[in-house]
Write a structure and sequence with these properties.
The chain contains twelve helices and 13 strands. The protein has 367 residues and is an alpha/beta fold. The radius of gyration is 20 Å and the shape is globular.
Length: 367
């Protein structure tokens, strides 16, 4: 049974959450951090228009705690599959600065995990049910250790987003994100008129199945292996992004990609979930609704499955706000079912446990 350390959001002896966060990190276990280690801090900087993302002062305290151990921390994330303000690293870094994650504010630089256009990735063997290999940001292969900072919240496709989604979806390349979101990947035009014949799609296609004819991309489908590289590469959004995967399978694919990331890091990881401003939707949305329940606190663990299970349990143990998206629901009721009734949210955690990522059984250490 794995320990999940917990500090409540309620004031304790006039000591702020920031003060207690450092104690939480140490209690959960930072002994794997060595002097001069390059430690990646994985988080989401939030989409433009969203204000519920993780607050920069918490990130600054994590950075300072790692520096006190002699490490060299940096912030990291990968570019998004959808076309928004985080599709490429230039726009992504500008937005991160706007949201308060600059070097001056948080004390650590940002190094994008997957390069300028999300074409800098490494393939790592997993040999699991859905994927034999997963494609993750190349920075994963270079960092010495990982600290995952996740804003726990609802999610349209998974019912909730926590550590597993932050790492699996968050460190997968853009093409990997497409593979997670769709069962069969086949390039199709969303708007053929938008195709300028720039040949970006042909450049990234390793099978050579795309050619430019009469100023438009043409696909030789009989040779296509469904690698999904071409879809996010299109700068004109001419190719259709596919969102067709079943929620339970999406959860399993996220777990497999997380497995690929953590397998390379040899358990030199710490996972932190912030159960604050628990909104119904992902921070990728360009807006956010009111929280579903009151602020709960912050969790930290060395087990990515245990911390997500504990987060769901604490969330469901609260009574929801009457004015929230799901209305007033009593303490103990499954609020993820109320939020996403057609999503079996448990499957992601069950499968993660099945493939050896961690355990759903945990001991909550209330600090």
């Amino acid at each position: 049974m794995k320990d999940v350390c917990f500090i409540r959001s309620r004031l304790t002896g006039k000591r702020s959450l920031l003060e207690r966060l450092e104690e939480l990190l140490e209690a959960a276990g930072l002994e794997f951090v060595r002097p001069r280690d390059l430690v990646g801090i994985k988080l989401s900087f939030g989409e433009r228009g969203n204000t519920a993302f993780l607050r920069p002062p918490f990130v600054r305290r994590v950075v300072d705690t790692l520096k006190a151990r002699g490490a060299k921390p940096f912030l990291t994330d990968s570019n998004t599959l959808y076309h928004g303000h985080r599709t490429n690293s230039v726009d992504h870094l500008i937005l991160a600065e706007e949201h308060g994650f600059g070097l001056t504010q948080v004390g650590a630089p940002i190094i994008m995990a997957d390069g300028l256009r999300s074409e800098s990735y490494l393939e790592t063997d997993v040999n699991l049910k859905h994927f034999r290999q997963v494609k993750v940001g190349s920075v994963v292969g270079e960092m010495d250790a990982l600290v995952s900072l996740s804003h726990f919240k609802g999610h349209l496709a998974c019912a909730f987003g926590g550590t597993l989604k932050n790492i699996g979806m968050g460190l997968g390349s853009r093409s990997m994100k497409q593979l997670m979101h769709s069962g069969t990947v086949r390039p199709e035009f969303a708007d053929q008129a938008a195709c300028t014949g720039c040949a970006r799609c042909a450049t990234v296609c390793q099978q050579g199945v795309i050619h430019i004819e009469s100023g438009k991309a043409h696909f030789m489908y009989e040779r296509c292996v469904g690698c999904a590289e071409c879809i996010p590469a299109c700068p004109e959004e001419a190719l259709k992004i596919l969102w067709t995967e079943k929620p339970e399978i999406l959860g399993e694919k996220i777990a497999e990609t997380t497995y690929g990331v953590l397998h390379r890091l040899s358990e030199r990881c710490l996972f932190v979930n912030f159960l604050l401003d628990i909104t119904p939707d992902c921070d990728c949305f360009p807006y956010n609704d009111d929280p579903i329940v009151p602020d709960i606190g912050i969790l930290a663990s060395r087990d990515p499955v245990a911390i997500d299970q504990a987060s769901v349990d604490l969330f469901n143990a609260e009574e929801s706000f009457a004015a929230s998206q799901i209305g007033r629901r009593p303490a103990g009721e499954d609020k993820l079912v109320a939020l996403c009734p057609e999503v079996n949210w448990r499957r992601q955690l069950e499968y993660a446990e099945e493939i050896g990522l961690g355990s759903r059984r945990y001991r909550l250490v209330d600090m």
